[in-house]
Amino acid sequence: MIQFAINKAYFLQALHTTRRAISSKNAIPILSTIKIEVTSDGIYLTGSNGQISIENSISVSEENAGLLITQPGSILLEANFFINVVSSLPDVTLTFEEIEQYQVLLKSGKSEITLKGKDVEQYPRIQEVDSLTPLLMDTKVLKSIIAETSFAASTQESRPILTGVHFVLSNHKDLKAVATDSHRMSQRQLVLEHSADNFDVVIPSRSLKELSAVFSDDIENLEVFFSANQILFRSETISFYTRLLEGNYPDTNRLLSDSFETEVVFETASLRSAMERSYLISNASQSGTVKLEIINGSVSAHVNSPEVGKVNEDIDVQDVSGSDLVISFNPTYLIDALKALKSETVRVRFISPVRPFTLTPADDSENFIQLITPVRTN
Amino acid sequence: MIQFAINKAYFLQALHTTRRAISSKNAIPILSTIKIEVTSDGIYLTGSNGQISIENSISVSEENAGLLITQPGSILLEANFFINVVSSLPDVTLTFEEIEQYQVLLKSGKSEITLKGKDVEQYPRIQEVDSLTPLLMDTKVLKSIIAETSFAASTQESRPILTGVHFVLSNHKDLKAVATDSHRMSQRQLVLEHSADNFDVVIPSRSLKELSAVFSDDIENLEVFFSANQILFRSETISFYTRLLEGNYPDTNRLLSDSFETEVVFETASLRSAMERSYLISNASQSGTVKLEIINGSVSAHVNSPEVGKVNEDIDVQDVSGSDLVISFNPTYLIDALKALKSETVRVRFISPVRPFTLTPADDSENFIQLITPVRTN
């Protein structure tokens, strides 16, 4: 019969982090609960949606938590409801006490709220990941790789493997992350500081976006553990598990070519705002494309949606070289690509109106490359 | 063939205000457009959803507008689309030019965007309001009356008259505003500074909420004009028209009684947070009520939702007098009522468990009174 007292704000923060794994509309009703396990060392909170699972610990040695454990035990509580109730409590501390089996009394100030819970035996077990040597990663670097690639993954389930980001470590230190939805591709390469065992995994893009939200920037490093169908990212207090996607990721290297016929260097921000205007008009029509004309060293964008209107726009460029070219594409892909670029200038290289074009930061063409497939127009 | 140049930010602000009257999902397609009329004096923008209409003027004499009119004329443009396009333009100024009939060219920086419009003859006419002597109202006072009453109006169309707020001016200076959805009532009375013609109108609550958003706090005064089925609120640049509700508003005076058996003075904030906790639990069950027990000078709140849990809460009170009482009600009504109260303390007066109870600011029981009907429980 659990009994503990805790600082409400600290408890709430841990509950909110854990809730990120919990979907209230889960097909498996038990996954809408949060698992609360109280031991003599601390409290362990677990949430899961079947794809990702988050385990959060609050230690008795953490001073800010103000945690005082009188009796250990474990229980499941409806996650959203429980978190709303805790956040409504009036006092800075709360006591949590199991008064009957699966019945919890929360006291705070002059409030007493009783909630019904469930037996933890009903909760599915999270498969353990036991890898001997974890990979050590800088949290900020991992989060920036995710921001640079995950948006390019597919959101459609017709080819499930494309909904993930392909992470490959080779030579024990060369990391490559790549995502493609078959219309565009984004690839980041980097050399790890510490060497590690080689791996080749496909992590669901949605899991990676949650991961970025769960680990705040003040957590410097993460340990990464691999198993056959799961991966675990772990900080001192948070363990984030996600399933891996099964299957062979397509070979994206064959999409990249070293040769090109036309090269333009743009200011990232001005190209992006020109594309945003183009998108407003192109989006109103079925075809939804913008036409980029590179002629005699000038670049202009054109959209014609007969029902709605037209865009004609001269775009400032820093440099143009190579052949003249007219190419059409969906401006959304270019907007997304430019959002992912941190550099002020972007180098765009074209082969022909029917071949994919590439984008790289103008100051570093080696490690971050994106690719967009044009649309054939008549 | 219209032609003018204008400061983009100033134009956008006026467009956003006008758009508040425009619903993109209107059953009458022409009402999704904005009417732009350009005269030698300035620009007039009109939006309407059939219930409310907003007319916004930008004068050539307004320096911040940077308005330069070359050719007058008028046109209709799809409101949301046009506003998105204007806000996407790159430069601080834009030129607006009708290049063919119903075809507009917007130029800003190196951008040229062409949009298709429609003939203004298709736009419905706003019925004019010609009253001789307007009522002069302080904008802040009007907005606070709206905040204090409009939430209590019904949102259900089964009794349309109850979806409005009843405004009555008597003795040329005594203003009373009252709203009720038949479960609760909120009434504000005040004496106007300037005398005016008596009136008795029912204004849709939804129109009043828009009105509060349209007139910013830096507009000190509004002129109010009445006609048989419409009312016009006017500032220097904005005219806000709304239809009135037809029919007889029920007599709400008979609901108020001078006698009471029990009186409690609460701190507004602590009563409200106790009710918010009660609501969390009560909301999970069908009945959805909280039981307030006033016994021997102590007040406590109780909710029991067998499926979910219970609340028991002692509530701090400043003063209790009269008979003991146990009364049940929907806590949402009390939460709404307390949100509308600006005073730190609230006086609640009860007659019996089956009669409505009243809330007044503890420091002013005359001018603002709310009433909540209890729920009979067994």
Automatic annotation (TrEMBL), chains A, B:
Function noted in UniProt: Confers DNA tethering and processivity to DNA polymerases and other proteins. Acts as a clamp, forming a ring around DNA (a reaction catalyzed by the clamp-loading complex) which diffuses in an ATP-independent manner freely and bidirectionally along dsDNA. Initially characterized for its ability to contact the catalytic subunit of DNA polymerase III (Pol III), a complex, multichain enzyme responsible for most of the replicative synthesis in bacteria; Pol III exhibits 3'-5' exonuclease proofreading activity.
Where does this chain mainly localize? Answer: cytoplasm
Upper lineage: Bacteria, Bacillati, Bacillota, Bacilli, Lactobacillales
Show where the DNA polymerase III beta sliding clamp N-terminal domain sits.
3-126
Q: Which InterPro entries match?
A: DNA_clamp_sf, DNA_polIII_beta, DNA_polIII_beta_C, DNA_polIII_beta_cen, DNA_polIII_beta_N
**Compartments where found:** Cytoplasm
Keywords tagged on the record: Cytoplasm, DNA replication, DNA-binding, DNA-directed DNA polymerase, Nucleotidyltransferase, Transferase
User: DNA polymerase III beta sliding clamp central domain: which residues?
Assistant: 138-251
Q: How does it assemble?
A: Forms a ring-shaped head-to-tail homodimer around DNA.
What family does this belong to? Belongs to the beta sliding clamp family.
Residue ranges constituting the DNA polymerase III beta sliding clamp C-terminal domain according to the UniProt record: 254-375
GO MF annotations, alphabetized: 3'-5' exonuclease activity; DNA binding; DNA-directed DNA polymerase activity
Q: Which GO terms describe its cellular component?
A: cytoplasm; DNA polymerase III complex
Example GO biological process term?
A: DNA strand elongation involved in DNA replication
Q: What is this protein called?
A: Beta sliding clamp
Q: Which domain of life is it from?
A: Bacteria
